[in-house]
Amino acid sequence: MKQIFRIICFGTAALLATGCNNKDSVTQDNALSKKVDQLKALPVSPKNADSLIAVWQKLDKNPVVVKDTILSASVKYNMARLYGMTGKDSASYYVEQALELIEPTSGDLKLKALIYNGIGNIRSMEAKQKEAGYYYNKAAAIVSDTNIDFNNEARSAVLLSAAQSNLTAFQYNLAEKMNRAALPLSQALPEGHINKQRVLVQLIYTLSTLKKPADSIRPYLRKLEDLHLKNADKYDISYLYDSKMKYFDSQDQKDSLLHYQLLKAKVDEGSNQGKTDAVYINNLFVDYSDIATTYTRLKQAEKAQVFINKTEKLKAANSKLIYNYNEALFLNSRAALYHLQGKPNEAIELMQQAAQIQKEVYQAENTQAVAEMNAIYQLQTKDRSIRTLNENIKISQLELEQNHLWLIISILGSVLLIFTLLFLYYSFRQRRTRQEKEKLLLQQQLLRTQMEPHFIFNTLSAVQSFVRLDKKEDAIKYLNRFSRLLRSSLELSRENLVPLNEEIETLDNYLCLQQMRYDNAFTYHITQPAEQDLGAALLPPMLIQPYVENAIIHGINLDSHTGNIEVCFVLEDDILQVTVTDTGRSQAHQADTSHRSLSGIISRERMQLLGKKASVNISKDANSGTVVTLLIPIVHP
Question: Which pTM does this prediction carry?
Answer without folding.
Answer: 0.54
